[in-house]
Amino acid sequence: MDAIRWSPEELKLLDQTKLPHQQVWETYAEATSIADAIRAMKVRGAPAIGAAGAFAVAIEARRLAGQPDMRERLERAITVLHDARPTAVNLAWALNLMRQLIDETSDEALPVILYNKALQIAEEDVKTNHAIGDYGAQLFNRPTRILTHCNTGALATVGYGTALGIIRSLHHQGKLQHVYVDETRPYLQGARLTAYELADEGIPFDIITDSMAGHFMQQGVVDAVIVGADRVARNGDTANKIGTYTLAVLAHHHEVPFYVAAPMSTIDLDTEKGEDIPIEQRNMEEVTHIFGQAIAPEGATALHPAFDVTPGGLITGIVTERGVVSAPYESTLRSLKNGEANE
Ligand code: MRU
User: Fold this and answer.
1) Residue 340: what pLDDT?
2) Which protein residues are within 6 Å of ligand 1, measured from CB?
3) How far apart are CA 254 and CA 232, in angstroms?
4) What is the distance between the alpha carbons of residues 229 and 45, in angstroms, rounded to a whole number?
5) Could you tell me the distance, in angstroms and rounded to a whole number, from the CA of residue 163 to the centre of ligand 1?
6) 232 forms bridges with which residues in the sheet?
7) Which of 13, 157, 230 to mutate to test the pocket of ligand 1 (most atoms within 8 A of CB)?
8) What is the 3-state composition of the chain as percent helix, strand, coil, each rounded to the nearest 5?
9) Which of 36, 69, 200, 230 is catalytic?
């Protein structure tokens, strides 16, 4: 399963707003239209929007090749892409890598050099996710019941997935008993996307509404919670899909291990703590309506923070492609970034 396909001239995105009932691929040949697709969540998931942003810059460089104001226009395109979604640091991370290359490269070489970099980001993401899957699967030694939130799978990355990558690896190793899939209001990434990926692979699951998680933990049928991340601050505070914090508090209360799976590109040592992470506020219609259908009285207002922050203190371990770390995150994350630690 994949949701992003590329060539030097075009990016193809599987429109995730239409899944699971329609599989519609759209073709993009300009950075600003890719920024629109990121904003509209046609492509979503931290690693996926990072890769899409990188390809957008490469495609834009080819489109503008030979124009005298190419560099200014490329810089403007990067700003538009950067502002499309503020919480997931992978987008800013990928755009920064592209920006650094632009500074070092001649006009003539830019399209090829930028495309090769985007390709590298995309290909490395898949390898990274397999490594996260392997490290995460080592945390369990018997058939396990996992609760997950949002979609962190092949659709949210370039392939395989992070938290869902661990679930895939557990399944391949015969160590997965069941997955509880949080529906994930309001965009329904769990019910629409994670369920779609798990069904496709024959992995046993049930969808639960977000409000059922506490009930199932109380019943003792959840062995661990595994979620993804959009940004991990220096102290381990982790921004992820709205509802994640609630799960972490519930898991703590019920003494259920709570793991975050994230590539190193999601770990942002420049952000000191959770309060410093910008939280995207989305349109209230995404809460008051489902698939364009109003579910609230006309004129009712709603709030829609798209992410929340789970304090590092509630996180049992962070699973990365370099290994699993636990608190104190300030030192363990820094060692990981320096390539030192492997638990
Ligand atoms: O708003 P979304 O769907 O982009 O949010 C996605 C998440 O919160 C994921 O958990 C996170 O990006 C990690 S995806 C591997």
Assistant:
1) 63
2) 44-47, 88, 150, 152, 156-157, 162, 189, 228-230, 240-241, 306
3) 24
4) 9
5) 10
6) 238, 267
7) 230
8) 45, 20, 40
9) 230
User: How far away, in angstroms, is 239 Cα from ligand 1 center?
Assistant: 10
> Which residue owns the Cα nearest ligand 1 atom 8?
241
- The three-class DSSP label of residue 343 is coil
Assign 339 a pLDDT band (cuts: 50, 70, 90): confident
Task: Tell me whether residue 71 is annotated as binding.
Answer: no
CA distance 113 to 106: 10
| Least trusted range by pLDDT, from 255-269, 311-325, 328-342 | 328-342
**Neighbour tally for 280: CB within 10 Å:** 17
Assess whether 230 carries a catalytic annotation. Answer: yes
The ligand 1 atom at the shortest distance from the C-alpha of residue 187 is 3
Q: How would DSSP label each residue in 152-189?
A: -STTTSSSS-SHHHHHHHHHHTT-EEEEEEE--TTTTI
Please report the pLDDT score of residue 341 as a whole number.
46
Q: Is 85 annotated as a binding residue?
A: yes
More confident of the two residues 343 and 242: 242
Domains and CATH numbers, the chain: 4-128 (1.20.120.420), 133-337 (3.40.50.10470)
Q: What phi, psi does 64 have (nearest 5°)? A: -95, 0
240-253 pLDDT tens trace: 999 999 999 999 99
Residue 44 is labelled as binding a ligand: yes
For tokens 């799976």, the residue is: 261
- Please determine, for the modelled complex, whether the ipTM score is greater than 0.90: yes
Q: For residue 173, say whether it is annotated as part of any ligand binding site.
A: no
